[in-house]
Design brief:
The protein is α/β, with parallel strands linked by helices and 371 residues long. The protein folds into two domains: 129 residues, Aspartate Aminotransferase, domain 1, CATH 3.90.1150.10; 211 residues, Aspartate Aminotransferase, domain 2 (3-Layer(aba) Sandwich). 39% of the residues lie in helices and 14% in strands. The protein has twelve helices and twelve strands. Strands 2-8-7-6-5-3-4 form a seven-stranded mixed beta sheet, with helices on both faces. α5 links the parallel β3 and β4. α10 runs parallel beside α12. The longest helix is centred in the last third of the chain and has 20 residues.
């Protein structure tokens, strides 16, 4: 029985299955850890130095809720150059997860419907339910592309928002520009909020990244520094979109997160001057190594176009059963049921040293023979 003080909304939350794998990894002596959703490279030295300088310069208090002026102004200038619009507003969030929470709370009333693509980032269903909204999923198997006509058919008078993520976690899918354009125009046509989670935009390998905001100026974009600059623990993100929505999100932040950590905002400003291309190129090669190794071992895989994940189909049993067998061999991957209504695939992160990826591929090749 739940404790009588606990609110009903907490029934929508469970301890993340990813966290359970992390806890398991901490107990292993030499795990082959391909479960972690964060870069294996370090924060650039110049960014570390800027954080230390901010701390020692006594920039440790609250910043304005919207963020420190220099960072906000630089990001907003970049956004306006990219999209050619002067009417977008922007503020600094406490991580991209914080930005997503604020966006959903600012947009959704109880009973509204939110369209999410399956597989999805683990946070999305619980976040929708937190607001009292209703989750509507659209299946994207087997190739994890988006059929805009399915989206059109799923929109009802109750649809408030579409939650879009490309490049995507957990699949690594990078949606092509024509589909992004059509989805953006559909949202505008039907007066549905389009929330674009762009935290992996730096990790797009085969074609230039395109935001739906290019085609729909009312798109609400959630972005940040966590993945591209390895600043996952620094909780620094930003959101931009129509001024009316951004102002409401910032107002909510004032009464929840208050502000992003000020020293790391100054570090984020320094990060904007750092070229991360060598790291992105290295991850493209890791993608090729992993995808090639999986295919050689006979796995069914939709080739990932971005982020740093692959989402192959388990060659036998359910994904949960397959992952349990992998863990027995000290290979840590994530069962796909955490990200999906299906328990057929599993997530691999290649944000790891090449030797760890090679060890993981050896175990996966062995496991595939159990068919």
């Amino acid at each position: 029985m739940p404790h009588p003080w606990i609110a009903d909304r907490m029934a929508h939350f469970d301890s993340s299955g990813i966290r359970k794998v992390f806890d398991l990894a901490a107990k292993m002596k030499n795990p082959i850890n391909l479960s972690i959703g964060q870069p294996d490279f370090d924060v650039p030295t110049a960014v570390q130095d800027a954080a230390v300088e901010a701390v020692r310069g006594r920039r440790n208090g609250y910043s304005p809720t919207q963020g420190i002026g220099p960072l906000r102004e630089e990001l907003l200038a970049r956004v306006k150059r990219e999209f050619g619009r002067e009417d977008r507003d922007l503020f600094i969030t406490s991580g991209t997860s914080g930005g997503l929470v604020l966006a959903m709370l600012a947009l959704c009333n109880p009973g509204d419907e939110v369209i999410v693509f399956d597989p999805y980032f683990v946070m999305y269903p619980s976040l929708v339910k937190l607001t009292g909204a209703v989750l509507r999923t659209i299946d994207t198997y087997p190739n994890f592309g988006i059929d805009v006509e399915k989206v059109r058919a799923a929109i009802t008078p109750k649809t408030k928002a579409i939650l879009f993520n490309s490049p995507a976690n957990p699949t690594g899918a990078a949606i092509d520009e024509s589909t992004v354009r059509d989805l953006a125009k559909l949202a505008a046509e039907r007066n549905v909020a389009l929330v674009s989670d762009e935290i992996y935009r730096a990790f797009q390998y085969d074609a230039p990244f395109v935001s739906p905001a290019k085609y729909n100026p009312d798109t609400i974009v959630i972005d940040g520094f966590s993945k591209g600059y390895a600043m996952t623990g620094w909780r620094l993100g930003f959101a931009h979109g129509p001024q009316a929505v951004i102002q409401e999100m910032a107002k909510l932040q004032q009464y929840t997160f208050v502000c992003a950590p000020q020293p790391f905002q100054w570090a984020g400003l320094a990060a904007l001057s750092v070229d991360m291309t060598p790291h992105i190129d290295a991850y493209r090669k890791k993608r090729d190594k992993l995808a090639g190794g999986l295919r050689a071992a006979g796995y069914e895989l939709a080739r990932p176009g971005g982020a740093f994940y692959a989402f192959p189909k388990a060659p036998w049993g359910t994904a949960t059963e397959f992952v349990a067998a992998a863990i027995e061999k000290e290979l840590l991957v994530i069962p796909g049921g955490i990200f999906s209504g299906r328990d057929t695939h599993f997530r691999i992160s290649y944000a790891a040293p090449d030797e760890v990826i090679d060890r993981g591929l050896a175990v996966l090749a062995e496991l595939a023979k159990r068919k």
